Amino acid sequence: MGTIDIHTHAVPKGWPDLSTQVGPGPWPSLRVDSEREAMIMVGSREFRRIEENCWSAEARLAEMDADDVDIQVVSPTPVFFSYEKPGDEAAKVARIFNDLTLEICSPAPDRLLPFAQVPLQDTDAACAELDRAIAAGHRGVEIGNHVGDRDLDHEGIVTFLQHCADRGVPVLVHPWDMPDSPRLDRWMARWLTGMPAETHLSIIAMILGGVFDRVPPTLRIGFAHGGGSFAFWLGRFENAWHRRPDVVGVSELPPTGYLDRFSVDSVVFDPAALRLLVDTLGAEQVMLGSDYPYPLGERPVGAVIDRADFLTDEQKAAIRHGNARRFLAL
């Protein structure tokens, strides 16, 4: 009954030249700088430096053992989503990276659980790739929190979420493609402020867009990065729903009526923030996540839970593994 990390990422060490396999464009590529280090490139632009723990099962397992992590959910790195591309091209990219992720996880199938990506901009293609990936061995799907200006309440995305519910496939929502501006391009502000805001906005869209009213409660959906700023501003959201129903009150229930319909991860770093999540959503809606192996992730994994002296032993066990077992249907 050991620790399950619901939020980690992988990057394959090698993939084919996407400009020849898929179509022209500034596709991601990997500049291998040494046996243990590489740089993700987007066209000619450096995007992110990574290390072998992104692609090496051996390196991942060694660090999991060091942090007493028994199971990782291994999800795509969002830069590969390709939502801005035509659906057929994004479907080819998803197939390539999903198959490579299975290879990364294959040395330890009981400990490394792969989550797929899909061409979310094309509903039919997304459903088809989900079915193919699950049949091939994927255990769930990671999606970005929006497709251009389409949020999670867009008709096509709702149809995809209904498909996930019908198939019993868990969904992890990850923020991505944050707006940039001169103010946000300093100090990693897109990651420090944009990611929490994007996730918060998407949960609002699920509620006010009527998604939770339309998809069955069997949908297992979780939001990365502690649900962003949602828990902190729930009171403001609730107040607006009641006081401005002419603008806000379009869901069947007030926002607090949907708190048992989704989960969040624990990668909030500070016990006070974790306490807010538990007080707001309930300990049964929080799952351990780390954002491993990236530098803004948590190491040692689960440290914020260890430091949370307000949690009972039962609550810590639920956050460390019990809730994830339910989410993953283990």
From TrEMBL:
Q: What class of enzyme is it?
A: lyase
Q: InterPro entries given for it?
A: ACMSD, Amidohydro-rel, Metal_Hydrolase
Taking every annotated instance into account, which residue ranges of this chain make up the domain Amidohydrolase-related? 4-329
UniProt KW DNA damage keyword:
no
Q: What is its EC number?
A: 4.1.1.45
Give the protein family: Belongs to the metallo-dependent hydrolases superfamily. ACMSD family.
This chain's protein is named: 2-amino-3-carboxymuconate-6-semialdehyde decarboxylase
* Record organism: Agromyces aureus
Give the classification, highest ranks: Bacteria, Bacillati, Actinomycetota, Actinomycetes, Micrococcales
